[in-house]
Amino acid sequence: MPPGYDGRRCGCAYAAQVEPPSFPRLTGTAAVSVRPARATDASDMARVQAVTWRSAYRSVLPAAVLDDWDEAAAAEVWRAAVVAPPTPAHGVLVAVDGEVVVGFAAYGPPEVSAEEPRAAQAPTTEVATLLVEPRWGRRGHGSRLLAAVADLAPASGARRLAMWVPEADAVTARFLESAGWARSGWARTLDTGGEPLRELGWHASLDEQEDP
Q1: What is the pTM of this model?
Q2: How many Å apart are CA 119 and CA 184, to the nearest integer?
Q3: Nearest CA to 85 among 125, 52, 55?
Q4: What would the CATH number be for the domain defined by 8-205?
Q5: Parallel/antiparallel/unpaired status of strands 91-97 and 182-191
Q6: In whole numbers, what is the pLDDT of the chain averaged over residues?
Q7: 141/134 Cα distance (integer angstroms)
Q8: What sections of the chain are H helices per DSSP?
Q9: In this structure, what is the dihedral angle of CA atoms 39, 150, 58, 70, given to the nearest 10 degrees?
């Protein structure tokens, strides 16, 4: 779902699982322009989330979610995620352009509800949030965030990345496909308090590939 949106699942529909493609290793400037988030980044992360949701997600998220957005409360949520992650496998990264926080990613073990069957699959890290402020788009920030998560996830034993994307979010779907991800064949529906939000699963393998 769009990162940070606390929707409640009202039902899940699952198709046959598809084998994930191998994640392409990205190198270069990730260490320079992506770093672990600090508590002082929380307000910037909430700003990025608010701006991105209101511009890029206006046609995807329920209007009530955008109208009732509380940026100060969101900043507290992100501050807690940074200073007191639920497990050592959880993390938050920020993308910076100079000294400006322009995007962020949050990741960790996937949360599986009672109605979601646990499939037999490789240990997984879920990308719960991946946002780049639109005015800083098309500069590689999203790719560097995704590459940094891929570099860090194996430390917790993960061999696979996964992410839920709203079915109507064609932009993120194209981005993930260009990064070597594929549809997993899973789908779920979230109760938003209004129009149900249907999400599709995407995934990529973290197993190393030999150079061609």
Answers
A1: 0.79
A2: 12
A3: 125
A4: 3.40.630.30
A5: unpaired
A6: 81
A7: 11
A8: 30-33, 42-56, 63-67, 71-83, 141-152, 170-178
A9: -20
The residue to which tokens 């496909």 are assigned: 177
Q: Are 12 and 189 in contact, with CB atoms under 8 Å apart?
A: yes
Segments in the chain below pLDDT 50? 1-32, 117, 120, 209-212
**Pairing verdict, β 197-205 and 91-97:** unpaired
* Nearest by Cα to 121 from 203, 25, 9, 27: 203
Note the pLDDT tens digit of each residue in 154-193. Answer: 999 999 999 999 998 999 999 999 999 999 999 998 877 6
Cα diameter, the chain:
51
DSSP per-residue string spanning 91-118: EEEEEEETTEEEEEEEEESPP--TTS--
Q: Would you mind telling me the total number of residues written for the chain in this entry?
A: 212
Q: Which residue has 């191998």 as its token pair?
A: 22
Q: What's the rounded Cα separation, in Å, for the pair 102 and 111?
A: 27
Nearby residues of 68 by Cβ (< 8 Å), 6 or more positions away: none
Task: State the pLDDT at residue 157.
Answer: 95
Domains of the chain, by residue range, sit at 8-205
| CA atoms in the 13 A half-sphere facing the CB of 180 | 17
